[in-house]
Amino acid sequence: MELGSQIKKHRMGQDLSQEDLAAKIYVSRQTVSNWETDKTYPDVENLLLLSVLFDVTIDELIKGDVEAMKEALAEDWKKIRILSWGGLVIALVGVATFLGGVLFWNWDIVPSALLGLLIWGIGMVMLVKVEHLKKEHDLVTYRELIAFSKGEPIDRSNPRSQQARKHRILKIIAMTLAGAIVGGCAGYFGYLFFG
Fold first, then answer.
1. Of 21, 24, 31, 195, which has the fewest Cβ atoms less than 10 A away?
2. Whose CA is closest to 144, among 27, 18, 29?
3. For position 39, what pLDDT does the model report?
4. Each residue of 5-25: pLDDT tens digit?
5. Contact 62, 3 (CB under 8 A)
């Protein structure tokens, strides 16, 4: 695989840091690092941007890595799909285990909660891995995920993508607070009904 070394060579030839290159083609520094270490591959749009920026043809840039790139992207999409569905199903099984243990199987609240949380936690770990893969490929919006799944160019320059990248930290904070509120309410009402 030569794409990573080609990107690094051309980047250093233009005296650019990974952050500088990332800013010029609208990806994260981690994405550039992953490309240079051959952990992931740039999509078609980013290859075009890189070839224009480095003033080389795409053929010169990739030097036979096309098939490996397609396979790696397809493999990552397969991982995202499996981990997403598996994580969701396992998390729901954890919730069902908790509710079933308390309502139907006459377990106490503590064993039901421990077992339910353990199973739910396994599902959450799988979903966190999905987020890690999305971050590696700089996928933020649903539209970008769909394009990635089809192997199409990803349009990161549209207003919706730009806005999603701009407010990423606020969304994480809002989702964390929402999760804490929902969890607190569930715990409170669970205690009222079952405690």
1. 195
2. 27
3. 83
4. 888 888 899 899 999 999 988
5. yes
CA geometry: angle at 173 spanning 172 and 177, to 5°?
115
Structure confidence at residue 96 (pLDDT): 93
Cα–Cα distance for residue pair 141/157, rounded to 1 Å: 12
Q: Render pLDDT for 135-185 as a digit per residue (tens, 0 to 9).
A: 888 888 888 888 888 877 788 888 888 877 777 777 778 888 988 898 888
Contact yes or no for 127/91 (Cβ under 8 A): yes
**How far separated are the first and last CA of the chain, in Å rounded?**
59
Could you tell me the two tokens for 6?
Answer: 């080609």
Q: Which amino acid is at 14?
A: Q
The tens digit of pLDDT for each residue in 39-98 reads 888 888 888 889 888 888 887 777 655 666 677 778 888 999 999 999 999 999 999 999
Residue 84 — φ and ψ, nearest 5°?
Answer: -65, -55
Residue 39: closest CA among 75, 80, 93: 75
Q: Kindly tell me the burial class for residue 55, based on how many C-beta atoms sit within 10 Å of its own C-beta (0-12, 13-18, 19 or more).
A: exposed
Provide the 8-state DSSP code for 152.
Answer: P
